[in-house]
Amino acid sequence: MQTIGYARPSLHAADLKEQVAALTRAGCCDVVVDHGRGRHPRDLKKRVALLNRLQPDDTLVVSRLECIAVSGKDLLTTLSLLIERKIHLQILHDNLHGARDGFKETLSAITTAFAILSTAVASEDGDVRIAGRSAILRPEDWERIQADAKVMSAAAVARQHNVSRSTLYNYLKRMEKQSEHAG
User: Fold this and answer.
1) pLDDT digits (tens, 9 = 90+) for 122-131
2) Is 26 exposed, middle or buried (0-12, 13-18, 19+ CB in 10 A)?
3) Alpha carbon of 75 to those of 62, 67, 114, 151, 159: distances in Å?
4) pLDDT band per the 50, 70, 90 thresholds, residue 65
């Protein structure tokens, strides 16, 4: 039985030096540091090698649960693999130790990690940002767009505001629903 730590950059985890120090303090005989970032599990090459190396009754230790996955789906797949192979998981941040802790705390950690993974995206330069783009058309643009729509075609209004027609139509539907609910 081995206790092996795994560290990698994460939106909410401490920097790598702090993660490695915490994993060492937790008694890990080896700490694998993965610098891989990306949106696909294959981008975490050292994690893949580590998971292949772990044996039943070994313990994998991470500082935060989301460190072992790149997406919500990958998190569920990885947790299933660990359970199937009888590998214990210890999460330092939430002080969880596999099945020995309460269901509520474990579910809370999984839910938090899933939410973080579904919104965090690594950019090409390695920086982590929140997924999705900021709104192009804001609620404060509503009056101007309504006025433009009275004298211009939808295509012209979309060009005027530098958006596609489908973005404009979606915005109009959303704003009409908001005004219905408000009124």
Assistant:
1) 444 444 444 4
2) middle
3) 13, 9, 7, 51, 41
4) confident
Strand-pair partners of 5: 31, 61
How much of the chain is in helix, strand and coil states, percent to nearest 5? 55, 15, 35
Q: What one-letter code names the amino acid at 40?
A: H
Instruction: Enter the tokens of residue 167.
Output: 């973005």
Residue type, 96: L
Q: Say how far apart CA 72 and CA 70 lie, in whole Å.
A: 7
Among 89, 17, 82, 80, CA closest to 59: 89
AA letter at 26: A
pTM reported for the whole predicted model? 0.55
